[in-house]
Amino acid sequence: MSVGQMSAARGAARTEAGRVRSRERRRSSVTARRHRAFYLFTAPWIAGFLLLTVAPMAYALWLSLTTFDGLSPRWRFVGLANYRELLGDAVTWQALGRTGLFAVTSVPLSILAGLALAALVNRPLKARGLFRTLLYLPAVVPPVGAALAFKWLFDQNSGAANGVLTGLGFDALNWLADPYARYVLLMTVLWAAGNVMIISLAGLQDIPRELLEAARIDGASAWRSFRSVTVPLLSPVLLFQTVTGVIASVQTIMPLLLTPDGTTAGVTAIPQSTYLYMMHVFAEYFALGRYGYASALLWVLFVLILLVTAAVFRATSGVVFYNVDPEAKK
Hints:
The chain has 13 helices and no strands. It has 330 residues and is mostly helical. The chain has helices at residues 3-63, 81-87, 90-121, 128-140, 143-153, 160-167, 181-191, 194-205, 209-217, 222-250, 254-258, 277-287, 291-315. The chain is flat and about 90 Å long.
């Protein structure tokens, strides 16, 4: 190869190398812009998460290690003393047991009620949109307004429930006291089943009609099609409702609003059957001023929710079917 050819070859190689470096710089610039755009758009959420979630949780964790009462500057660091007291507190365990029973009762009933309503309004009925709206309306009523409405409805002296009973010749009942208070609380939860209905309805409408038609052609009854086709395909929705329902049920604070004195002092008037875990936390925080101990209660609840959620996911891993193409996961 002559000198001129070698020089031309080196020039071509340098030109190609320059083109490669230019493409790499452009690709790097595009990647950097995408990264900046990503962090720019997620910055509000990240800031809110850090300031409104992580920071309060860290502060509550620090409070749980102290005797702080919210007012007095005389507090001291006690380490795990609040947690040791919690383990030996019978009231805490009783409240936790009642909360677990409430969750086990209310969550399945809410899911079943919502699924039944969804199946009803998913049929080709006249004025179907109106029925969907009316059934969903209770779910958008603020919890405080709903609790006050039920409080007036089941008032012992002037409530409509006792008005119906006395009109039928029965004695008036004290609905907001034991043993009836638990049933009123359960009715407040079921009354807002429209929220569950909307999610179940979306799941029902996502089920391919071809599968239901194939089951009907094979001679399957309506119940068999629902049990063998609809429920398995609806299992991701049911799992979501179970997890979110459990989390919401263990955090309910509705009993305070149903008491005759729906204020901070009214926590002492809550019927024993509806004295749930969050009621105990509320009492420790605001009625007794034990911020450290109440923060320990909340952190224990947080850990329990994580454990229960993990247990639910593990227990349902073999019965939840996702309508996703396996090739799409690759």
